[in-house]
Write a structure and sequence with these properties.
The chain has 362 residues and is an alpha/beta fold. The protein is built from 18 helices and 9 strands. The strands form 3 sheets. The chain has a 5-stranded parallel β-sheet, with helices on both faces. Strands 6-7 form a two-stranded antiparallel sheet.
Length: 362
């Protein structure tokens, strides 16, 4: 892909030790960078290392490219990470100053870059080389993919030919990049997804409808996906949370997870850097989170991983001050009290005292 070759070219430029790749949700920032790393490794025999913010390497060897992703939150802004971002930037700057023949790529969501760039001004040299990924770059390719998707469909009764480019471009999901919308409809090419999208022109709503259908028709897969949603990931090297499974009245067991099952693999991928099973795109995680929150808020506030709640849930009082994002959900006072009580039990209340879920709790 041309954008990957452009990134490799930028890495090769004299004096370029670090650059930031910026794009909206669904404009393939992380997958583009992974493509850049792969091609650069082939061309130069360098190696690459991936780190999810705020983790960074303690030591880095020569001829290594470090990719740091998930800034301010893997799924959305957690509103608590400015100090961590400054620390990460300081350490990345020191790496470049003290180690020869290393390069760094920062992957960041465009709205978060705009929001926090002044806070990181002290380390502006890390962000002086930019590559902005915009849908216009991919326009022709994804229009072709969209047309081929419909032409190649052999599913009896499928209404995908009723989908139009105008629906995808001008729906209620405009925050989501066209590449991701096409990929979601291709990967999850089911009647419930297609019919819902034709009705509402909203990819998040369509995937929520799909998770509801999974719950009704394919409970084992559904329960594993909700387990991954609540925990944030699944790893065979970590303890299986039997207590969570019991509380949710799920029927899954550790032995029932089959990574080779094709249908399960439609929803997940292996995060090689962390050796964990995660949703194939952070947006699919967000869809699962929204589905479960809509179904039973208390399950999320009592059992979901704290990072996801901080990133995706905002109190209703917050909405009166700040317009809510497409990917966020609203919590009333009772929901907020549940979460605050949980943070108190986990001894995390002080750590997140500036977050609106804690600030505005009554």
């Amino acid at each position: 892909m041309e954008i990957v070759r452009e990134g490799v070219k930028k890495l090769r430029e004299k004096g370029v030790k670090c650059f930031v790749v910026i794009g909206g949700i669904g404009n393939m920032v992380n997958s583009t960078v992974r493509g850049i790393l792969k091609l650069y490794e082939i061309d130069t025999k360098w190696k690459s290392e991936l780190y999810r913010f705020p983790k960074i390497p303690e030591k880095i060897h020569r001829k290594t490219i470090v990719f740091v992703y998930g800034w301010f939150g893997l799924w959305n802004d957690d509103l608590c990470s400015v100090d961590a971002a400054k620390t990460v930037c300081k350490n990345l700057f020191q790496i470049l100053e003290t180690t020869k023949n290393v390069k760094i790529i920062i992957g960041m969501r465009g709205d978060l870059y705009t929001k926090y760039k002044n806070e990181l001004e002290e380390y502006s040299s890390l962000f002086s080389n930019k590559m902005i990924i915009d849908f216009e770059i991919f326009c022709n390719k994804y229009l072709r993919d969209f047309d081929e998707l419909k032409e190649d469909c052999i599913i009896s009764g499928c209404r995908c030919n009723d989908l139009t480019y105008d629906m995808l471009e001008n729906g209620g999901d405009e925050l989501i990049g066209m590449p991701l919308k096409v990929n979601v409809i291709s990967k999850h090419h089911y009647s419930d997804v297609i019919d819902s999208y034709i009705k509402d022109n909203d990819i998040l709503k369509a995937m929520k409808v799909h998770f509801t259908a999974l719950h009704e028709n394919e409970k084992p897969i559904y329960e594993w996906l909700m387990y991954i949603c609540l925990k944030g990931h699944f790893s065979r090297t970590e303890s299986f949370d039997k207590d969570l499974v019991r509380k949710l009245k799920f029927g899954i067991e550790l032995s029932s997870f089959d990574e080779h099952y094709a249908h399960l693999r439609r929803y997940t991928r292996v995060s090689v850097s962390e050796r964990r099973y995660v949703f194939w795109d952070p947006f699919i995680y967000i869809c699962a989170f929204h589905h479960l929150y809509e179904k039973d808020k208390s399950k999320i506030m009592n059992h979901c991983n704290v990072d996801a709640i901080l990133q995706l849930v905002r109190p209703t009082s917050w909405e009166n001050k700040t317009p809510s994002s497409y990917v966020e959900v609203s919590a009333d006072d009772e929901d907020v009290k549940l979460f605050r009580k949980r943070l108190l039990e986990l001894n995390l209340l002080n750590k997140y005292k500036e977050h609106p879920l804690v600030q505005d709790a009554h």
